[in-house]
């Protein structure tokens, strides 16, 4: 009985290996060696939690990265909502909403062009310590923490084997059906979504007192860290508004870096990590995205 089960399990593993190979266009089918590795991995994975399995998955991918020359210009794409606008919409800026169809075209295009998603943590390790990146890295960032990140973006990221960075507005979590819940955030964390802070209430940080700025920064960072048991190293300025004082305060609050909204540009090693540019992507197909990616 036990042996029969073992054979069945092995067949299933080989079969899923073939599907995997077929799906990524890696034909001819996986070699004997790869099948053997898959089996060993399967046995080890039995005792791992979903979070540990995903962590292992991303670590395996990272082992394949080898680009260490200092000349990379890394696109950090900026999204907000990926959804259909509700009829008579008054709540959302249509400019910041990308349809699920166009978003999937973006992911497919990135995959076909050989891009590999990395996190801001990976990017930081490259610019500060020269750690390797893939040859065509891209960071996908999403601001505010809308619920469609869980219902639409996350399933598509899984489908294309990609990761992303999510800047969460902590005051909206569990408070409003348009935004994520802590439970959803836990699942996203387990998958390997990188979580960054985006303040508590989304104020213009250049228009409030430095005491209030400090409170917005520290409260959002600490709440994410405490609730999710993670380290929150990156920040997105609400609406991109910042000045010298705000940038200094973000640094003092213990962040390693922060992202802007405008002007569009790619991140290079000599950039100040607290002023990393991003590339806005609108509701356009892959041709639109490829034009955006042409920025310096
Ligand atoms: Zn925002």
Main features:
TIM Barrel, alpha/beta, 296 residues, binds zinc ion, globular, six-stranded parallel sheet
What features would you describe in this structure?
- With 296 residues, the protein is an alpha/beta fold.
- It has 2 domains: 37 residues, no CATH class; 218 residues, TIM Barrel (Alpha-Beta Barrel), CATH 3.20.20.370.
- The chain has 10 helices and 10 strands.
- Strands 1, 4, 5, 6, 7 and 10 form a 6-stranded parallel β-sheet that branches. Strands 2-3 form a two-stranded parallel sheet.
- Strand 8, helix 9 and strand 9 form a beta-alpha-beta unit.
- Helix 1 packs across helix 2, helix 3 packs parallel to helix 7 and helix 8 runs parallel beside helix 9.
- It is globular and about 50 Å long.
- The N terminus is likely disordered.
- The site of zinc ion has 5 residues, from strand 5.
- The site of zinc ion (ZN) has 5 residues, from strand 5.
Short overview:
This protein has ten helices and ten strands. With 296 residues, it is an alpha/beta fold. It has two domains: 1-37, no CATH class; 76-293, TIM Barrel.
């Amino acid at each position: 009985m036990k042996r029969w089960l073992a054979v069945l399990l092995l067949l299933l593993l080989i079969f899923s290996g073939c599907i995997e190979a077929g799906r990524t266009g890696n034909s001819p089918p996986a070699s004997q060696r790869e099948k053997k590795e898959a089996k060993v991995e399967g046995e080890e994975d039995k005792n791992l939690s979903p979070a540990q399995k995903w962590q292992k998955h991303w670590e395996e991918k990272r082992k394949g990265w080898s680009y260490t020359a200092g000349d990379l210009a890394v696109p950090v794409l900026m999204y907000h909502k990926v959804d259909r606008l509700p009829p008579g919409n008054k709540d959302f800026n249509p400019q910041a909403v990308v349809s699920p169809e166009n978003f999937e075209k973006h992911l497919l295009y990135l995959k076909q062009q050989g891009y590999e998603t990395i996190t801001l943590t990976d990017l930081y390790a490259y610019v500060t310590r020269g750690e390797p990146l893939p040859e065509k890295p891209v960071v996908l960032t999403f601001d505010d923490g809308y619920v469609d990140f869980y219902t639409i973006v996350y399933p598509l990221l899984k489908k294309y084997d990609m990761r992303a960075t999510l800047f969460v507005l902590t005051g909206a979590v569990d408070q409003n059906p348009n935004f994520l819940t802590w439970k959803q955030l836990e699942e996203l964390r387990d998958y390997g979504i990188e979580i960054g802070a985006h303040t508590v209430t989304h104020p213009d940080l250049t228009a409030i007192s430095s005491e209030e700025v400090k409170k917005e920064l520290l409260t959002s960072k600490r709440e994410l860290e405490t609730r999710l048991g993670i380290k929150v190293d990156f920040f997105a300025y609400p609406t991109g508004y910042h000045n010298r004082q705000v940038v200094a305060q973000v640094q003092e609050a213990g962040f390693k870096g922060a992202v802007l909204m405008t002007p569009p540009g790619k991140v290079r090693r000599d950039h100040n990590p607290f002023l990393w540019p991003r590339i806005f992507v609108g509701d356009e197909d892959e041709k639109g995205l490829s034009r955006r990616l042409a920025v310096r």
